[in-house]
């Protein structure tokens, strides 16, 4: 799988496996095993997902060399307090059975906490226990505030992004500041898979609608993080590197923008 280079030189696989809402240990183990078999090496979890221990155990059991893996976790809102962030991160390392994570994110731009929390994130990065640090659910306004005050800028901004929520202004801002955008919920939780434009593009390439949606995320320069617990779908979601959407396809897909959020919205967070 192709890798992209973050602003600090860390390499990140261009597609990851999301673990949101996988709360059953057996289901998580089976999904991670299927993902590894399919070729995934990039795994995205979070403290609030409560499945860090499951992921850690599944990866350890698989005996894949640690250097081949790219593991992301996120600091949850309640752990962003000055005295709590680093201990919570150290618990995440224990859960994941690793000495470091490849990417550590602040999960949400909590108004009173995000600035001091970033100082703690910088400390963790300097310690070498996170190869890269970034944020999640940050708008342009939140990023501008952070960039004005930080010593180490975020390498990643993970946001909801799909053909129905394209966020072109945010993508352009992040591109200008060398911040990679990761796209969570790239399949919009299955919203309107019967859309005629998507169906037409999928037929043209002999691909599924989901594969077209993931491929679109890749071609706009993001790292999509599809999630599934079904082996066939896990395999399908990674089989997106053998076709290319042409300019006509991209223009058609651009017309699907609906500013549709299927998860939480950070837009009104001060």
What is the number of E strands?
A: 10
Low-confidence stretches: none
| Helix and strand sequence | EEEHEHEHEHEHEHEHHEHH
CA-atom Rg in angstroms: 18 Å
Which structural class should the secondary elements be placed in?
alpha/beta
Number of domains: 1
Mean pLDDT: 97
Separation of the first and last Cα atoms? 38 Å
Strand content: 5-15%
CATH topology: TIM Barrel
CATH class group: Alpha Beta
Let me know the largest β-sheet. Answer: 8 strands, parallel
Which oligomeric state applies?
single chain
Provide the helix percentage: 25-40%
Across the major sheet, the strand order is 3-4-5-6-7-8-9-10
Principal-axis shape equals: globular
Question: How many helices in DSSP terms?
Answer: 10
- What is the CATH-assigned architecture? Alpha-Beta Barrel
Detailed description of the structure:
- There is one protein chain.
- This protein has 270 residues and is an alpha/beta fold.
- The chain has a single domain, classed as TIM Barrel.
- It contains 10 helices and 10 strands.
- The strands form 2 sheets. It has an 8-stranded parallel β-sheet.
- β8, α6 and β9 form a beta-alpha-beta unit.
């Amino acid at each position: 799988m192709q890798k992209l280079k973050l602003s600090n030189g860390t390499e990140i696989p261009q597609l990851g496996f999301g673990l949101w809402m996988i709360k059953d240990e057996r289901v998580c183990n089976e999904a991670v095993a299927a993902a590894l078999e399919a070729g995934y090496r990039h795994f995205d979890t979070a403290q609030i997902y409560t499945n860090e221990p499951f992921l850690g155990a599944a990866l350890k059991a698989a005996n894949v060399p640690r250097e081949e893996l790219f593991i992301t976790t996120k600091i949850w809102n309640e752990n962003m307090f000055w005295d709590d962030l680093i201990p919570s991160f150290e618990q995440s390392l224990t859960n994941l059975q690793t000495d470091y994570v490849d990417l550590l994110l602040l999960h949400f731009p909590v108004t009173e906490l995000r600035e001091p929390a970033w100082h703690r994130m910088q400390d963790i990065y300097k310690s070498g226990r996170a190869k890269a640090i970034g944020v999640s659910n940050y708008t342009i306004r939140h990023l501008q505030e952070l960039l004005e005050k930080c010593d180490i800028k975020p390498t990643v901004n993970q946001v909801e992004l799909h053909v129905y929520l394209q966020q072109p202004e945010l993508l352009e801002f992040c591109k200008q500041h060398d911040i990679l955008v990761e796209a969570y919920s790239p399949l919009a939780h299955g919203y309107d898979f019967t859309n005629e434009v998507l169906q037409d593009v999928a037929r043209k390439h002999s691909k599924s609608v989901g594969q077209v949606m993931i491929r679109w995320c890749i071609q706009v320069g993001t790292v999509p993080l599809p999630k599934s617990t079904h082996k066939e779908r896990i395999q399908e979601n990674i089989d997106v590197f053998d076709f290319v959407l042409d300019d006509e396809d991209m223009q058609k897909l651009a017309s699907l923008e609906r500013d549709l959020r299927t998860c939480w919205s950070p837009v009104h967070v001060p």
